[in-house]
Amino acid sequence: MHAITIPEPGGPEALEWAEVPDPEPGEGEVLVEVTASGVNRADVMQRRGFYDPPPGASPYPGLECSGRITALGPGVSGWNVGDEVCALLAGGGYAEKVAVPAGQLLPVPRGMDLTTAAGLPEVTCTVWSNVFMVAHLRPGETLLVHGGSSGIGTMAVQLAKAVGARVAVTAGSKEKLDRCAELGADILINYREQDFVEELRAATDGHGADVILDIMGAKYLERNVAALAVNGRLAVIGLQGGAKGELNLGALLTKRAAVTATSLRARPAAEKTAIVAAVREHVWPLLEADDAGSAGAGTGTGGDGGGEPRVRAVVDRLLPLRDAAEAHRALEESGHVGKILLTA
Fold first, then answer.
1. What is the pLDDT of residues 61-109, one digit of tens each?
2. Is the pLDDT of residue 308 over 90?
3. CA angle 230-236-241, nearest 5°?
4. pLDDT value, residue 306
5. Which of 81, 93, 208, 292 is deepest in the core (most CB within 10 A)?
């Protein structure tokens, strides 16, 4: 088969299309013929040499894909050759084939095409695990999403609205904020022109954010704590603004607030399986075009049954897998809204 390889770390030009050995499904794994793959910031970090795959994972970039099962490894049940799936990966999505633990597979949502489904696993698992499983966002609370127009951001806005939360977003242009508003965002903050702490306080009558989903890390740490409500929860999932910052524990104590930091890629298989199962139960019904009103148990959502899905995948553009370098350049320029996908 062919895959995008990284012979040496570097810029987008470091990505090379090469012939590589076919993967073989091991115990509890299936082999997927890839239709499309999602492009994520973690792929860029891996290309630069800052984010190596976990031990035993594929050396090729790509943390999510969609495709068809072509072979079952020993001990796999519940899936069949020919099933159309999307999958959460520890690596290997930028390839024509990939071996996937069966517990990290998801069916393609009813009414969605196979290519679009490639952009779902990483964002749904990241948002659901952090915003709902860890930070426990509840109906009526306020969620602040930094980078609201990103793949993660567009999914976080929609899922939070689906459970009855109020959503604030930051983004760097009016066009991006307008797209966030179309998805349901209530409070729109241009981080280039406005102070998100002040804007959030003004919009919430001083209450602040009950949950913050943060991709910036150190650069926003102090201001994020300032923006939290009493009993607020800050979930850090990215370090685009640095890894080391000073945390005012006094402010945290006064607010009885919490800070968590998680990554998804290196989690044990059992944890990923649990997250994928929760996403299938709670998120997939919101993505299903034929059954949009039947939200998963415990989400606090309702509906009128049938019709359009309440949550949708937001895809900015499709590029051929061979053009992964162009996709990385587009991601780093940050002009996109939603997901950039590579098609095999």
1. 999 999 999 999 999 999 999 999 999 999 999 999 999 999 999 999 9
2. no
3. 115
4. 53
5. 93
Task: Please give the Cα distance from 283 to 334 (Å, whole number).
Answer: 27
What pLDDT sits at residue 29?
98
Q: Which of 41, 57, 46 is nearest to 272 (CA)?
A: 57
Give how far Cα 240 sits from Cα of 289, 311, 335, Å. Answer: 35, 27, 16
Q: Provide the pLDDT for residue 292.
A: 38
- Distance, in Å, from the CA atom of 38 to the CA atom of 122, rounded to the nearest integer, reads 8
Q: Which helix H or strand E contains 339, and what residues bound it? A: strand 339-343
Cβ atoms of 342 and 315 closer than 8 Å: no
Per DSSP, what are the bridge partners of residue 342?
37, 319
Give the residues across from 69 on adjacent strands.
Answer: 32
Q: Closest by alpha carbon to 204, among 232, 176, 246, 172?
A: 232
Pairing of strands 105-107, 97-101: unpaired
Q: pTM for the complete prediction? A: 0.94
Q: Which residues pair with 66 in a beta bridge?
A: 36, 86
Q: Which two tokens stand for residue 205?
A: 């009558």
Backbone angles phi, psi at 300, to 5 degrees: 75, 15
